Amino acid sequence: MLGLMQDWPLLCHKVIDHAATYHGQREVVSRSVEGPIHRTNYAEVRLRALKLSQRLARDGIGIGDRVATMAWNTWRHLESWYGILGVGAVYHTLNPRLFHDQIAWIMNDAEDRMLFVDLTFVKLVELIAPKVPSLERIVILTDDAHMPETSLVNAVSYESYIAEADGDFAWAEFDERTAAGMCYTSGTTGDPKGVVYSHRSNVLHAMTALQPDMLSLASRDRLMPVVPLFHANGWSTAFSGPMSGCAMVMPGAGMDGESIYQMLTQEKVTITAAVPTVWLMLLQRMEKEGGALPDLSRVVIGGSACPRAITKAFQDDYGVDVVHAWGMTEMSPLGTLCSIKPEYAHLEGDEKLDLQTKQGHPPFTVEMKITDDENVSLPWDGSTFGRLKVRGPAVSSSYYKGRGAEQFDTEGWFDTGDVAHVDQFGYMQITDRAKDVIKSGGEWISSIEIENLAVGHPDVAEAAVIGVTHPKWDERPLLVIVVKEDRSPSKEDLIGFLDGKIAKWWMPDDVIFVDDIPHTATGKIQKTALRDQLKDYSFPGA
Ligand code: AMP
């Protein structure tokens, strides 16, 4: 016997219909790439997305066609996503921080037919476009008055492109499992791998993301996704925001501490989300120049481990709750959030901060386990670490063109490549990427744990720990430090600071000071590049 409920396909454009119908006047505020603050609302965003769909349909773009975007978070980028989705085409976000050859490779792999690009990246696209034969048209996300001089053929302004449509258009109807979006993983080794989201997975994931133990979004919120839409499906904010009916504050290209501070305070943002490096910049700006965050109630921090010092500063100095999050491009991307369950509600001070260094517990729709190398499940005791595996309706079942098949097993588990432990209440803590774990005398040392402690030192701006070959122990930890302006801590200061906080045998064998630590295109510490830079380093006396 089947249920007698309506078969209502979970299509992404129903989200913007909902936002426009029930929260139509809710603001979407952006720092435009041209400069001024721009204000619109969900009703307008939907109407302009319909115009875009209509225009795309006229150009022969339809179900399954890939349309790339290379853009900051602004209202035009948001409209582009919905306009592309509305004809059944696939938004393909490009990360402009990748090397241009890598971007060309990705665009050719995806066979992008069109590209929507911000003014900031026009010069970059001039280098890339000639290498992508599938590209038919380039839409520059601006108006005619701001169109740049460009060698790009077939380039038009977004405003003139959609001006040719009146919006009298019906969204396309199709199966909810149809591809909706594409995002390539950062791919630190080998070719990048394409992750393909479906309409169904995006809608289910947004519903998951809204929950009180997740982002806890409500129509009264003002959400600022600092995390760019091109990083891991924009952490679902393009869907979860409109689904909740909250106002959206889009920071555009202003990613420095001062610009973020201005948007947070002037636009009365209540919830925001980004990687730790962004929050380091904001906190450094506030440490120097002062300021307060009276409207901000919570900040979601993920993409790499959130150092304890960041959590402490937000909570103790500015009264803002930190929600540590873990996820992956392959998971749409949210996997766990560290909200406080009743089992831990009694924790305060340092004990609460200890809990918040964990990446948290999964919502409904994410299943997780940890295993050894033979795929045997390991106990959830808060200390035994193993390979972290996940499955669920918004987790990849394979990569585009079947790459990376070894990461998926026959029971649907996806091997995340992360190493973690899980405690008795289901709180997961990442101890490393499998390839970054330091193997010393047959035991594992967590580089992340040492890094998190080291950035708590008042003179340290950034810290990374890598394993360096050692004649006796195989590998030993090396602590790499970037110091804050005008500070000069000694090696002994730093080692002394760690003393008593980690096991003796985890203590770094040496500390070195550098001007910069290399980062990936999504702002994470790039351990491969750092190891490469330090390949000639050997421990004193080793
Ligand atoms: P990406 O798909 O580029 O977002 O990268 C996903 C990877 O980032 C994960 O597999 C983790 O290795 C890392 N990651 C994401 N969030 C966290 C976090 N909160 N703590 C530690 N690592 C994280």
TrEMBL record:
Limits of the AMP-binding enzyme C-terminal domain: 449-524
Keywords assigned: Fatty acid metabolism, Ligase, Lipid metabolism, Metal-binding
UniProt record, GO biological process: fatty acid metabolic process
Enzyme class of the recorded protein, top EC level: ligase
EC number: 6.2.1.44
Signal peptide: none
Any Pfam family the entry gives: AMP-binding_C
GO molecular function terms noted in the UniProt entry: ligase activity; metal ion binding
Enzymatic reactions: 3-(methylsulfanyl)propanoate + ATP + CoA = 3-(methylsulfanyl)propanoyl-CoA + AMP + diphosphate
Residues in AMP-dependent synthetase/ligase domain copies: 18-400
Family affiliation: Belongs to the ATP-dependent AMP-binding enzyme family.
UniProt-listed PANTHER family: ACYL-ACTIVATING ENZYME, BUTANOATE--COA LIGASE AAE1-RELATED
Identification of the protein by name: 3-methylmercaptopropionyl-CoA ligase
Organism expressing this protein natively: Hoeflea phototrophica (strain DSM 17068 / NCIMB 14078 / DFL-43)
